[in-house]
C-alpha cells in the first residue's frame, strides 16, 4: 500500500441549512470584522456629516456654529443609520442563505470526501472533484464547521458534528502540512 493511500481518510456529510448559515457567518465575520466594518462605518459617518454641513456651509457660509450643528446632527443620523443597516444586512444574509440552501436541495444532499497529503476529492450523485491543497485560498473554522475556501464564493463546508474528531484533526494536519493559510 502506498503512503498516500495509507494516510488517506474519508467521510460523508449531509448538507444542513444551519451549517450553511454558520459558514456564511464565519465568512462574513472573517471578511468584514473589524477593519472593513470600521471603514464602512467611517464612510457612512463622513457622508452624513457632509450632507448636513456642506449645503449649509455653501448656502450660509462656513461659520463655526453651523459646522458644529451639522457635525452633531450628521453624527446622530449616522449613529441611527449604521445599526439599522447592520441589522438589515444580517436579516438579508439569513434569507439569502435559506433561499440558496433550498435551491441546492435539488442537487445531491450528501457528499463523500476523501483526503490525503496531496489534496481532497469529493463525489456525489452529480459531480466529482479532485483538488490539490495548493489550490485552496485558505481555511477557517469555528466550533460548528471547518470551511475550505477555494475562491471567495466557492467553498466546502465540513460540519464537525458529522465527522469523527480524529478525522477533523487529520484534515487540519493535512492543511497545515500543505501550508494552506489559516485566517
Overview of this protein structure:
By secondary structure, this protein is α+β, with helices and mostly antiparallel strands. It folds into two domains: 3-16 and 109-177, PH-domain like (Roll), CATH 2.30.29.30; 25-104, no CATH class. It contains five helices and seven strands. Helix 2 (17-32) runs antiparallel to helix 4 (64-104) and helix 3 (35-60) packs antiparallel against helix 4 (64-104). The longest helix has 41 residues, at 64-104.
Topology:
Layout: H1 3-6, E1 9-14, H2 17-32, H3 35-60, H4 64-104, E2 110-115, E3 119-123, E4 128-132, E5 138-141, E6 145-151, E7 154-159, H5 165-177
Antiparallel strand pairs: 1-2, 2-3, 3-4, 5-6, 6-7
Helix pairs in contact: 2-4, 3-4
Residues in helices, as a percent range? 40-55%
- CATH H-level superfamily of the largest domain: Pleckstrin-homology domain (PH domain)/Phosphotyrosine-binding domain (PTB)
Mean pLDDT, all residues = 87
Shape: elongated
Percent of residues in β-strands: 15-25%
Q: Which class of the largest domain in CATH terms? A: Mainly Beta
Overall structural class, as computed from helix and strand content, comes to: alpha+beta
The helix/strand order is HEHHHEEEEEEH
Q: Main beta sheet, described?
A: 4 strands, antiparallel
Task: Tell me the CATH topology of the largest domain.
Answer: PH-domain like
Domains (count): 2
How many strand elements?
7
Q: Mind telling me which CATH architecture of the largest domain this is?
A: Roll
Q: Give unreliable regions as ranges.
A: 1-5
Spatial sequence of strands, sheet with the most strands: 1-2-3-4
Number of helices: 5
Radius of gyration, in angstroms, nearest whole number? 24 Å
Distance between the termini: 35 Å
